[in-house]
Amino acid sequence: MSIAPDPVLMEVEDGIATITLNRPDRLNAITRDMIVLVRSLVDAAAGDDGVRVMLLTGAGRGFCAGQDLSERDPRGRQEPFDLEAIQKELYHPILNAITSTPKPVVARVNGVAAGAGSGLALACDIVIAGQSAKFIQSFAKVGLSVDAGGGMALYRGLGLPRAKAALMLAETLTADEAAQLGLIWKSVPDVALDAEANALAGRLAATPRHALASIKAAMSAAATAPGLAHYLDQEATLQGIAGSHPDYAEGVLSFLEKRKPDFS
Questions:
Q1: In the chain, N or C: fewer CB atoms in 10 Å?
Q2: 54 shares a domain with 164
Q3: Residue 131 sits in the same domain as residue 51
Q4: How many CB atoms are closer than 10 A to CB 92?
Q5: CA dist list (Å): 228 to 90, 152, 155, 225, 235
Q6: Do residues 38 and 17 share a domain?
Q7: Is the pTM of this model over 0.90?
């Protein structure tokens, strides 16, 4: 009797928690059990003082092909699936967990990132993708709108005209196109993806965590503030908190003394 592998894996090394979607035979398509496990692992990494950075990726040839539609088979059902309830129960918690943790979350996108898989990747703070990666907005092809936070991510990254067209036309954006348009941070050759993503995570792990948390909070405030005055108040508060932390004094002192800083 064979035992199915865990659908999501987590490994912690050198302050980096690598969370891997692990259904490579299905291009890591999302099931209910899988998304619940991703949420629990993100929460565990967020609460672990030894973790400074999270790195989300997919096993095999793809990052995530989106919702596993075998769980949405309408045959034999009297009522349609309540997708609103499913979004609120399963997807909203993981998106909120990624965006609300003060720790940086990096998406290493290999291969396809479709539908909810694209939304999951774009919810991360920094997205680095191999050049063969594709961000596919496939909702319209199955008669849907948009979910998993994808609408906001596309609007912020592409602007309204491009975001609407991408969704209405069920467009596919290559990694290079996504980087050029500002949807993701960077596209790199496939052979360099692992090394570049690991170097990025290592660089973040070596950066003062309070600074990264403040920057993440400031960018969240910039995206949601009703106006400049409101944002400036929040920005000043965050900078005040950062400035009172010992890391700031050490950063300034190391600069003046021309040495490598020794952050807490």
A1: N
A2: yes
A3: yes
A4: 15
A5: 34, 20, 20, 7, 10
A6: yes
A7: yes
